[in-house]
C-alpha cells in the first residue's frame, strides 16, 4: 500500500473504518479493502529487520501500553502511538526507525484493532497474559471455596462520555459525542452486572448543576455536582447507593465478590469499608487484562456505547442550541431504554461472565471456540439493541491522488488491603505481578 493508504489504515485500526472515512474523506468499504490487502501480504511470524525496529520484547511493552490506554478510554492514535514507540526505541542500540508500515504491522501482529470481536481469544503480551491467568485462577478458587452465589458475583466499571462543545455548535454535531478523551468528561456512567444475568441500576455522574430532569428512569441513579466528583468519590457513591442496597436486598448475610479494574481509585478506605461490611471481596483485574477477564468488556460496554452513539446520531439535527440540561435529559432516557433491554438479556450477560473465564464452570475449550462464542454473543446483543445494520453508510468521496504524504515527525517529548469479613487471611493472598 502507498504511504497515504497505510496512514488511513492505521487510523482505522486505532479508531474505526467509519471514523477514518470521515477524517480522510474516503469510503469505509475502500479502507476495509486496503486493510484486507495488507493483511493478505503479511507473512506469519515474520520479524522486523534486526536493529531497525523495536524488538519483539519492546513491542510487547508497547502493546501493553495500548491495552491499558484503552481501558482508561485514553486516546491511542498516530501521534500517541509514535510518541510512545519513539520513547521505547530511544533505549535500543543500533538506532530505531518508525514508519506507517511498521505501525500497521504492529497493530495487526498484536491484535490491537478496536473493532475486533474476538478479544477473549486473542493472545495478550506475555507478561500480562501471565497476570490474567493468575487472576482467573485466584477468582475461580475464591468463588469455589466460598461457594459464592451468582447473584453475589458482580462486575463494575465506569464509562466516560465526552462532549465537544465546538463540534456540537457546528454542522458536524453528530460527531460531538465521544467515548475517548483526555479532558474532563461531560458525564460518567457506572455500570454493573451480576453473574446470574441481572443488571444493577446505573449511576450517572453529571458535572455541573442542572434543573431536575423531568423524569429519571427507575434503572438510573443521578448525581450532579458543580465541580464534579473525584474518582474515589464516584466509587463511594456507587458502593453506597448500588452495591450496599443490592446486598441488603439479598439479606445482607451472603458473601460476595466484585470484579473491578485497577486504573481508578476503586479501593479508597471508604469503598473498602462498604465492601467489607457487605462481606464482599474486591477482585482487582490486572492492567491490560480487561479484554479477557472483565465481563462488561466482553460484550456489554461496547454494545451500550454503540447504542448511545446511534441514538445521538439519530437526534443530532435536533440538538442545535440545546443546553446541557436538555442533553442530559436525553441521555438519561436513552440509558433507561438500553438498561431495560439489557434487563431482558440475562442469558447473554451470564455468557459474558463465562467467556471472561471468571466462573469455575467456565471451560469453553480452544481460544478459537471462545472467539466464535464472543462474536455470536455480540451479534445477539446488537440484535436485541437493534444495532445490527444500523451503522451509517460510508460517505461517497472521490479517490484522492494525495498518496505522497510524509511521516510528519518523530516525537521527542512525552506528548495494602484490610481483611474482609468472612474471608480467611490465607485465602486472600493477592496475586502479584
Automatic annotation (TrEMBL):
Matching Pfam families: DDE_1 (PF03184), HTH_Tnp_Tc5 (PF03221)
Listed SMART domains: CENPB
One GO CC term, this protein: nucleus
Keyword Nucleotidyltransferase included in the entry's annotation: no
Alphabetized UniProt keyword annotations: DNA-binding, Signal
Record-annotated HTH CENPB-type domain positions: 46-116
Molecular function as annotated in GO: DNA binding
Signal peptide feature range: 1-20
Listed SUPFAM superfamilies: Homeodomain-like
InterPro entries linked: CenT-Element_Derived, DDE_SF_endonuclease_dom, Homeodomain-like_sf, HTH_CenpB_DNA-bd_dom
Record's protein name: POGZ protein
Amino acid at each position: 500500500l502507498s504511504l497515504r493508504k497505510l496512514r488511513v489504515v492505521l487510523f482505522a485500526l486505532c479508531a474505526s473504518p467509519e471514523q477514518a472515512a470521515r477524517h480522510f474523506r474516503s469510503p469505509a468499504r475502500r479502507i476495509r479493502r486496503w486493510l484486507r490487502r495488507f493483511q493478505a501480504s503479511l507473512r506469519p511470524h515474520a520479524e522486523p529487520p534486526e536493529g531497525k525496529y523495536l524488538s519483539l520484547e519492546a513491542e510487547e511493552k508497547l502493546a501493553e501500553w495500548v491495552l491499558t490506554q484503552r481501558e482508561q478510554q485514553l486516546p491511542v492514535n498516530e501521534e500517541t502511538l509514535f510518541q510512545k514507540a519513539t520513547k521505547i526505541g530511544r533505549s535500543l542500540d543500533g538506532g530505531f526507525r518508525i514508519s506507517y508500515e511498521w505501525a500497521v504491522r504492529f497493530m495487526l501482529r498484536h491484535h490491537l484493532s478496536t473493532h475486533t470481536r474476538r478479544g477473549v481469544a486473542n493472545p495478550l503480551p506475555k507478561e500480562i497474559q501471565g497476570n490474567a491467568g493468575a487472576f482467573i485462577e485466584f477468582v475461580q478458587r475464591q468463588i469455589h471455596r466460598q461457594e459464592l452465589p451468582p447473584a453475589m458475583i458482580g462486575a463494575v466499571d465506569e464509562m466516560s462520555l465526552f462532549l465537544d462543545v465546538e463540534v456540537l455548535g457546528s454542522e458536524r454535531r453528530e460527531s460531538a459525542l465521544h467515548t475517548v478523551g483526555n479532558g474532563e468528561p461531560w458525564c460518567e456512567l457506572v455500570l454493573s452486572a451480576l453473574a446470574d444475568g441481572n443488571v444493577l441500576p446505573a449511576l450517572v455522574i453529571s458535572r455541573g448543576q442542572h434543573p431536575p430532569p423531568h423524569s429519571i428512569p427507575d434503572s438510573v441513579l443521578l448525581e450532579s455536582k458543580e465541580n464534579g466528583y473525584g474518582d474515589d468519590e464516584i466509587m463511594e457513591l456507587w458502593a453506597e447507593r448500588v452495591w450496599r442496597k443490592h446486598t441488603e436486598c439479598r439479606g445482607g448475610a451472603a458473601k460476595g465478590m466484585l470484579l473491578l479494574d485497577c486504573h481508578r481509585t476503586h479501593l479508597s478506605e471508604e469503598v473498602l469499608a462498604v465492601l467489607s461490611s457487605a462481606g464482599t471481596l474486591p477482585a482487582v483485574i490486572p492492567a491490560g487484562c480487561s479484554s479477557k477477564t472483565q465481563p462488561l468488556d466482553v460484550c456489554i460496554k461496547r454494545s451500550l456505547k454503540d447504542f448511545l452513539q446511534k441514538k445521538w446520531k439519530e437526534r443530532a439535527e435536533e440538538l442545535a442550541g440545546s443546553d446541557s440540561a436538555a442533553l442530559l435529559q436525553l441521555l438519561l432516557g436513552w440509558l433507561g431504554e438500553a438498561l431495560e433491554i439489557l434487563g431482558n438479556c440475562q442469558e447473554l450477560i451470564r455468557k459474558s461472565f463465562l467467556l471472561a473465564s471468571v466462573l469455575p464452570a467456565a471451560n469453553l475449550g480452544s481460544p478459537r471456540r471462545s472467539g466464535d462464542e464472543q462474536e455470536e454473543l455480540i451479534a445477539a446483543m446488537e440484535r436485541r439493541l437493534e444495532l445490527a445494520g444500523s451503522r451509517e453508510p460510508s460517505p461517497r468521496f472521490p479517490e484522492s491522488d494525495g498518496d505522497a504524504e510524509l511521516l510528519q515527525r518523530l516525537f521527542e517529548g512525552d506528548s495494602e488491603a484490610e481483611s474482609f469479613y468472612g474471608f480467611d487471611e490465607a485465602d486472600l493472598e493477592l496475586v502479584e505481578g
